[in-house]
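WARN  no MSA supplied for this record, continuing single-sequence
INFO  ligand: adenosine-5'-triphosphate
INFO  echoing inputs
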Amino acid sequence: MLPLLSLLITTFYLILVLFFFWSGLVFPNFPLITNNLRGLLSPPGRPHTPAGCEKPLSQEQSRRVFTDSFPVSPASKGAEGSRYRHRALLRTRNPPPSRPLTKVALAAGRKWTLSAAAAAGSASPRSWDEAEAQEEEEAVGDGDGDADADGEDDPGHWDADASDAAAFGASGGGRPHARSLAAEEIRQMLEGKPLADKMRPDTLQDYIGQSRAVGQETLLRSLLETNEIPSLILWGPPGCGKTTLAHIIANNSKKHSIRFVTLSATNAKTNDVRDVIKQAQNEKSFFKRKTILFIDEIHRFNKSQQDTFLPHVECGTITLIGATTENPSFQVNAALLSRCRVIVLEKLPVEAMVTILMRAINSLGIHVLDSSRPTDPLSHSSNSSSEPSVFIEDKAVDTLAYLSDGDARAGLNGLQLAVLARLSSRKMFCKKSGQTYSPSRVLITENDVKEGLQQSHILYDRAGEEHYNCISALHKSMRGSDQSASLYWLARMLEGGEDPLYVARRLVRFASEDIGLADPSALTQAVAAYQGCHFIGMPECEVLLAQCVVYFARAPKSIEVYSAYNNVKACLRNHQGPLPPVPLHLRNAPTRLMKDLGYGKGYKYNPMYSEPVDQEYLPEELRGVDFFKQRRC
Ligand SMILES: Nc1ncnc2c1ncn2[C@@H]1O[C@H](COP(=O)(O)OP(=O)(O)OP(=O)(O)O)[C@@H](O)[C@H]1O
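INFO  complex generated
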């Protein structure tokens, strides 16, 4: 009886455990893995069709899905990341029939075309949209880099980038005309994910500019090509391509079975880092698999968090790639810095910006209008298509390239906003008129792109290095009596959102440090400007600061007091032993006792003398020292 009972209990528990595994409660990936394991084990003649997949997967695809089913990093949110990849692979097999035309469909070597998509009507559009919405949520929740660097991107999308580049000659700066697309199609393509993200290149061939860092002859390029990735700190202004370079390295390393894990210092905790390191150690010891850890905005980790990486970078458990907009000499631990190669990425030059913008414009199917040929595209009726074509002035592209100030993200997103705004306003007009829509063409002008960019092109980081760079440039321009440069740096800070009181405080200091007694009223001016800023605030106070800055640039300069005072400070700091006592005759004697002790004795009260008074004011041992002439005492 007893053995039967224990057999029953054991069987019950076994069923319970199996149920938990199967339902994914204990190990959320289990159903996914078993589903795909079936595919892996299925005989070559009978390819396996996983749930949700219209067509059967080949054995190789099943194998990829199977291995990808395991969580690889906390950044990929474990099971969620693998589900994402799973769906992504399904997506390549089952393109959504209802999905609007994406740039995938525009490029040569496209994955599917509009008509092909329309023909493949069996997959449920509803479930497809739901899956996509969920994926987008996950991508937002995980942070940008997670999705990108862990290989969780939509393969259809990213694969298309490479073919886009091939189709449009991405590295060339020319402006080939794109295939005409209807405005509505373009609008749909632009909605959702930012254009900058959609256009992120996958390969070094598509990575524009930055030739000093990753040009043909550079060491980094050869290291990347041979997949010998050293620990790196990528330093450069926003939107210059740091994350993109990491994304390219990630793509490359995946081909060589190297794990690439992404964390962002804005939301990752020390424990997340520890988890990654632990996993990297396991991978290294059990599977001899390397791990590259990409930390976006590494400067946001404090010194002790940065210390966590040190021993693991040192012993090669992880290869660290950090991205920062801040000067790493100040923001990254010296010990960590000495173990990494610092790659300085620069603001993208205008030509590179034009190339990047043209790649996007072409992929959107927008026509560039040559301003040297004065034709009015709006006056022509549309061609064969019932919808209008979209045009952009070539000078609008140039302006966008100039104004985005080397920030490709600002440029691409500015383009996206300009096009969307133009297309939406056209739509509104149609609604108001209440008439049937008559086909016309849409032109994006220079003004549209300026509005699209708005203020975002002014590069100014109030909390970071740019703040110090600009105030230093202002100070030096005033010292050098260059009034135009002084005004320029002032405006650059104020337009970038700098606190006017911060500038005013610097002016108070400048009045004494650089003008000093050459024009003592400078200090009055500066204090008045400070108070004026305090009273009226921005934007009214900008002219107060401008007046003060120009006054200072024009004023005579003297550092006499400033340097003499520095000499005194140096004298005090260098003094050996106890400081000399205050001479008795200079001491005040408010009480009888003090008088009896000799305080104030022999002091000559100057107003009582008609002649200059011969009296010592310095301590005995400093007699005769002139701080205005000599530094040593
Ligand atoms: N060198 C480049 N070639 C082609 N496209 C680029 C390049 N640099 C940037 N881009 C485009 O600009 C977008 C933003 O670039 P990225 O995210 O790499 O900037 P970043 O330097 O990491 O900026 P941040 O410091 O603000 O994170 C990319 O998605 C890509 O579309």
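The domain at 210-344 is CATH 3.40.50.300 (Rossmann fold).
INFO  checksum written, moving to next record
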